[in-house]
Amino acid sequence: MSIELSVGGHACVRLERASGERLVIDPGSYSDRAAMADADAVLVTHEHGDHVVPGELRDAVENSSHLEVWGPDAVIDQIAVDAVVASRMHRVRSGDSFVAAGFDVLALGESHARARPDLTPVANVAYLVDGLVLHPGDSFTVPAPGTRVEILLAPLSGPWLKVGEVVDYVRAVRPRIVVPIHDTMNSQAGNGLADRLVASLGGTI
Question: Sheet containing 177-181: which strands, arranged edge to edge?
């Protein structure tokens, strides 16, 4: 795989090609701000603050000559850039396919995982990048049957999930590699335990 992947804290992931294109997914409030350095494109799965900081992302777009952003309607509405750079803001729905900073992206899924039966989930779009890397945001979105996911960025902790559900998700997607994300709420020891459970029970190949 000709992509370098690095986790920029919590749900933030940075993908970079040897040729220099840089794509960042979900640079939220718990992310390392360095992940956004020289980014060419940003994908946002949903509107929650641990996945996007609207003011910071707006500033990044306005201070760049080319940075583009893709996300659900609520995300784009919150960023509210001026008309000069509005053409670089893109609304995404499930099923959309597009090219972001040279990466082929397919948008999947529609909703955040339900934290409680009485809460209506916000819109959440998962992204499959180059047909290889799947970032589900806060969801357990599974690609269409027959889709071969090389790397699954698996959320590990949050008020909307249990580790057993993560194991089920890994088994459903069947990636070659699982990279844990969305783990700020855990202690180091807790993350270690969750990593071991997912690795031993997930059945990745």
Answer: 97-100, 103-108, 126-129, 133-135, 151-155, 177-181
